[in-house]
Amino acid sequence: MGNAPIAVKHCLNFxxxxxxxxxxxxxxxxxxxxxxxxFPDFVKIVExxxxxxxxxxxxxxxTEVKIQLIDMLSxxxxxxxxxxxxxxSKWVAQMxxxxxxxxxxxxxxxxxxxxxxxxxxxxxxxxxxGASEVAVFGSASETFSxxxxxxxxxxxxxxxxxxxxxxxxAGIPVRGYVSCTLGCxxxxxxQPAQVTKVVKRLLELGCYEVSLGDxxxxxxxxxxxxxxxxxxxxxxxxxxxxxxxxTYGQALAxxxxxxxxxxxxxxxxxxxxxxxPYAKGAGGNVSTEDxxxxxxxxxxxxxxxxxxxxxxxxxxxxxxNRPTSSKVAQATNKSKPSLSRSD
Length: 343
Fold this sequence. Notes:
The protein has 343 residues and is an alpha/beta fold.
């Protein structure tokens, strides 16, 4: 370049470099990491109470109560309500009435009602019962996978491949779950690289979205951020959701961190119902009421009517004869004026 000024030489060198390396602009933009300041304008809430919330109940919940709960939730503005699980009653007796529940609910056109299908047999039964969307449930922990679904991670992926292949042929979308993303009750800490591997595999198999579960509820904002940084270097953030348990009272903080990092799908459970039958001591899911209250306070749209969610929570808590785990519902009930009757 002879006697060209240094600044010109740098520009020419940079131009040549960009021409030789067309992937470089993507690298320069994407590797800076997710924006930790901007919240999404809209967050999709995936209501998991009727399935993940009720599956851990020791006393059998009547089928008609499950149906009424789902019908009440359908009136709240929620667009996704996980209805039930087509798992063997030998493993989760609470979900033995899956066919009756799925056929008994009043399905609204603007609401999706996915069901959990751990294997091809469950998928076929779900389709026969009228399912139009399904989900598969894997783990980032080998030990948890063996305790939860009785197979290794690799074996589970082969099962899921069968389900997803059949679902594609039937035109049925499949959502994926990955448990133990922020810790395992048997193995302790789980490396973010292992979580990334499992998430990437599920997306490659054909899941349209993967929900990252803090099964033990031991995660913190710091561990959530570290895990998401690792995962989003390999997969697009728009394909991710978070599923937080509130065992240590960290669920809302973890969700807030995920939102700051670009996640815009959050799983939650009405009245904070749930836990995990295979993770001893794991607290309930974060309550839908508390999540919606926080999101609306941030100016984030959800399309959900909080007062109607609180009503659904009151209904199921009365049916189960237990208080709600939702702080928002508790505060709302306390603020209601008490009615006194004078003689």
